[in-house]
Design brief:
With 125 residues, the protein is mostly helical. It is built from four helices and two strands; from the N terminus they run ααββαα. It is 42% helix and 3% strand. It is elongated, with a radius of gyration of 23 Å. The structure holds zinc ion.
């Protein structure tokens, strides 16, 4: 089989799916089940954050204080617009990757179509 790069796959089908999957690690399930809850993008919906200056070389963030997020005043609640802006960037990147992939795939196919069967055989295609 000829070498082909994998077709880019879309990671999230919708903004709603992105909201749930991207913050599964930091937001409680009950909040993710609430479609009106949009996580604060600065603290990942937790309402607090760790300061890298507090990180211990051995203990990591285990003993580090949790700082209240100023952006959401500790609520963990952000705006749909801020979440959508990140989502739109991911979708734009996916579209660009897909366009580039289709173009490369087109070159590959048109290149292959110019080869004779003997040439293909000798290339192991
Ligand atoms: Zn926040």
């Amino acid at each position: 089989m000829p070498q082909t790069s994998k077709r880019p796959e879309r990671r999230y089908r919708s903004l709603a799916e992105f909201r749930v999957k991207n913050w599964q690690w930091s937001v409680r399930e009950s909040r993710l089940l609430d479609p009106t809850f949009w996580p604060c993008v600065l603290c990942s919906g937790r309402g607090w954050y760790h300061n890298p200056d507090d990180r211990d070389p051995i203990e990591g963030y285990k003993l580090a204080p949790a700082h209240k997020c100023q952006a959401c005043a500790g609520t963990g609640r952000g705006t749909k617009e801020a979440v959508k802006a990140i989502y739109d960037e991911i979708v734009a990147k996916f579209r660009a990757d897909l366009t580039a992939w289709k173009e490369a795939e087109g070159h590959r196919k048109s290149g292959l179509s110019k080869l004779t069967q003997e040439e293909k055989n000798s290339l192991g295609l």
